[in-house]
Amino acid sequence: MIDPRIEKLAGLLVEYSTAVQPGDKVYVRSTTAATPLIEAVYRKIFQAGGHPYLWIELPQQPFLLYKYGSEEQIRHFPEPYQKLAETYDAYIRIFAEENTKALTHIEPQKVVWFNQGMSRYSKRLVQRMSDHSIRAVGTLYPTSGYAQDAEMSLVEYEDFVYCACMPDPEDPVGFWRAFSERQQRIVQWLDGKRRIQVTGPETDLTVDIGGRKFINCDAHVNVPDGEIYTGPVEDSAEGCVYFSYPAVISGREVSGIRLWFEKGRVVKASAEKNEDFLLKLINTDEGSHRIGEFAIGTNDRINRFTGQILLDEKIGGSFHLALGFGYPETGSKNESSIHWDLICDLRNGGKITADDQLLYENGRFVIEG
Amino acid sequence: MKDPRVEKLADLMVNYSLGLKPGEKVYMRASTAGAPLIEALYVKILQAGALPYLWTELSSQPYLFFRYASEEQIRHIPEPNMMLVSTYDAYIRIEAEDNTRDQNQIDPEKIRWRGQAVQEYMKTLFTRIGDGTLRYMATVFPTHAHAQDAEMGLEEFEGLYYKACLPDMGDPVGYWQRFSRWQARLIDQLLRGRRKIHILAPDTDLTLDITGRRFLNSDARMNIPDGEIFTSPVEDSAEGHVAFTYPATEGREISGIRLWFEKGKVVKATAEKNEDFLQEVIHSDEGASRIGEFAIGTNEGITRFTRNGLFDEKISGTFHLALGAGFPEAGGTNESGLHWDLISDLRGGGRIFADDQLIYEDGQFLLTDDGHR
């Protein structure tokens, strides 16, 4: 029997997140590892009157491309996919890896070629998302690969993911609507504030947010969701941060990260594990030395680190900074080829103030209600 | 462990059948039930320097499509698919089903809508295959469902399949090259320039005019497994009657089919099972009651009936007629939405005459030299 939670999740993605209307063209990109969810989404799109296009990859496909493809082949991005990004009305991305470390031994240069080959597509997608001509949502299907990274059994991990996606299983849409309203009150409170200070263990950071906008993440662009984010003024960050959670990028884990900022720029960085890699990444370009995003995770069902950024950045009681690219819709001007999220737990004595008023303490907003 | 036969098959398809060159764009349509072959082909395509596009479908997808889509949704053809058929250099189709009967309960009206919707796609496909701008290759991947249709265990069916596809496991390409030369000799010595074909077998006595028509040599370029020679007979020439030994599957199984022809047209048709359905198919359009293809199967690895058209029409010792669309490349002019292969065994005393010369008896060609395939 199909897991009834899959059917509900498909409903949330199609009817709420992307709100598919009759005649809408919708593409779904995933791997065969997510077959039950793809099938449910496919059905829901028909029932909503849309025209689905399934872009399904085999779990081994990226590895095989990198292993056997030449530079020309890796860079080749098929025109039919470009057409999807150019002309479709909605896009549902379902991450579903059987093995999250499959690319560990692939030369990083090959991944760069692939991303460069895909950049016309990615840019068009981001552009159309920001002018709202395409509605796109990203979600994750619980696979054994992800469960292994989270150090859970698949059954436990499924419970964890579905609970994070649908905290109220009886009324998933109703939950996110109410959640959005509550979160909107915090965003409104922050509107017009100029200066944010975060303090916690080994952490004391100030950023300027004058003129910048906080965005309310309420299961339209990500499922699960739950965060508010902005792009701080690029030359404003001062102080230091200790990131209590490891950061995973291209399958490599960097942990025990500490960053020191002056005038918005990283002036010192250290890590307990893979420090070389951290320093290399920070030196990618000018923008990668600066903060592109400041965000607070608000999904209380995500209460532990799992190694998947889509989930980890939403951990209720955490905040994260991203080095690199900032989102123009927040007012950020930071440009970079990287956007690297680093997460810090605030549940142990952490505090956030805005213009010297207490906003958040021990992982909870104190201005609610 | 990976089945090494899969890799050999992929190599044959990419490097012999399609002969892919660096920079050529190739798309491959298959269901996820064919994943091992898809992966092997993907690697071979990359190694050949070509640019693959995988059009992978869930094995449940066709059923879900017909079950949940409205008429408007059924008639929608995604533009990316049209881009593939109109701009790519090669196309690989792998039939790999988890259940060959999963669409049996679908309203035939819906399948007709889809048939109409894909006409532009199909027309582009056939036009480009015909003018040589698109190379096409089709195979079946052995699944439990295909084994079940053949009434065999999967391992037995895989044995049959790979023996039919790769009769010489040590030199698959060399085998098909030799095979192609052998078939070319059959055509040259026994059929080129002939005017009349006469088939005599139990309950069968049929004559066809093939004046001006060409016999074509199917040698693992477009189908794997392969092994047949075929032509399109003159459209108003068929006279006599045929009993088909094997059941035909066109959604539903029809068995014990007998057809009577006058001036090329079916004038009487009977079946032991599902005769109503037979009548419906024959009357689906004007061309459906005429012969579009006459062919002789030559693959000795296919020793039994499997209920899969790609296999059964190649059974050595059989001939088949197709009602419906003919092949322009053979000189055929019959047009129809149907191309329905009906197969008959000639191993029990069947004979074929070309201009009154006996050329085929008991499932064997009577070559003047001792040609070896």
Radius of gyration over C-alpha positions of chain A, nearest whole angstrom: 20 Å
Measured between the Cα atoms of the first and last residue of chain A, the distance is 43 Å
The amount of beta strand of chain B, in percent, is 25-35%
Number of domains of chain A: 2
Number of helices of chain A: 12
Number of domains of chain B: 2
Biggest interface reads:
A-B, 34 and 33 residues
Number of strands of chain B: 20
Give helix % range of chain A. Answer: 25-40%
* Low-confidence regions of chain B: none
Widest sheet, order of strands of chain B: 14-13-10-6-5-18-19-20
Query: Based on CA inertia axes, which overall geometry of chain A fits?
Result: globular
User: What's the end-to-end separation of chain B, in Å?
Assistant: 33 Å
| Global shape of chain B | globular
Biggest sheet: strand arrangement of chain A = 14-13-10-6-5-18-19-20
Main beta sheet of chain A: 8 strands, antiparallel
The computed structural class of chain A is alpha+beta
Structural class of chain B: alpha+beta
The DSSP helix count of chain B reads 12
Strand content of chain A: 25-35%
| Quaternary structure classification | heterodimer
Summary of the model, kept short:
Chain A has helices spanning 4-17, 35-47, 61-68, 71-75, 79-87, 108-117, 119-130, 144-149, 154-165, 172-190, 275-282, 309-312, and strands at 25-31, 51-57, 90-95, 135-140, 195-200, 203-208, 215-217, 222-223, 227-230, 238-243, 247-249, 252-254, 257-262, 265-270, 291-297, 318-324, 339-345, 351-354, 357-361, 364-365. By secondary structure, chain A is an alpha+beta fold.
Give structural notes:
The complex is a heterodimer of chains A (369) and B (373). Chain A has helices at 4-17, 35-47, 61-68, 71-75, 79-87, 108-117, 119-130, 144-149, 154-165, 172-190, 275-282, 309-312; strands spanning 25-31, 51-57, 90-95, 135-140, 195-200, 203-208, 215-217, 222-223, 227-230, 238-243, 247-249, 252-254, 257-262, 265-270, 291-297, 318-324, 339-345, 351-354, 357-361, 364-365. The mean pLDDT of chain A is 95. The longest helix of chain A has 19 residues, at 172-190. In chain A, helix 1 crosses helix 2 (35-47). In chain A, 45% of the residues are buried. In chain A, strand 1 (25-31), helix 2 (35-47) and strand 2 (51-57) form a beta-alpha-beta unit. In chain A, the strands form 4 sheets. Chain A has an 8-stranded antiparallel β-sheet, covered by helices on one side. Chain A has a 5-stranded parallel β-sheet with strand order 2-1-3-4-8, with helices on both faces. Chain A has a 5-stranded antiparallel β-sheet with strand order 7-9-15-16-17, with helices on one face. Chain A has 369 residues and is α+β, with helices and mostly antiparallel strands. Chain A has 2 domains: 4-141, Thermophilic metalloprotease (M29) (Thermophilic metalloprotease-like, 3-Layer(aba) Sandwich); 174-365, no CATH class. Chain B has 2 domains: 4-141, Thermophilic metalloprotease-like, CATH 3.40.1830; 172-365, no CATH class. In chain B, 32% of the residues lie in helices and 27% in strands. An 8-stranded antiparallel β-sheet of chain B has the order 14-13-10-6-5-18-19-20. In chain B, strands 2-1-3-4-8 form a 5-stranded parallel β-sheet, sandwiched between helices. In chain B, a hairpin with a 1-residue loop joins strand 11 (248-250) and strand 12. In chain B, helix 1 (4-17) crosses helix 2 (35-47) and helix 5 packs parallel to helix 7 (119-130). The two termini of chain B are 33 Å apart. Chain A binds chain B through residues 25, 32, 35, 38-39, 42-43, 46-47, 49-51, 53-54, 56-58, 60-61, 64-65, 68-70, 72-73, 76, 78-81, 83-84, 87, and chain B through 23, 25, 32, 35, 38-39, 42-43, 46-47, 49, 51, 53-54, 56-58, 60-61, 64-65, 68-70, 73, 76, 78-81, 83-84, 87.
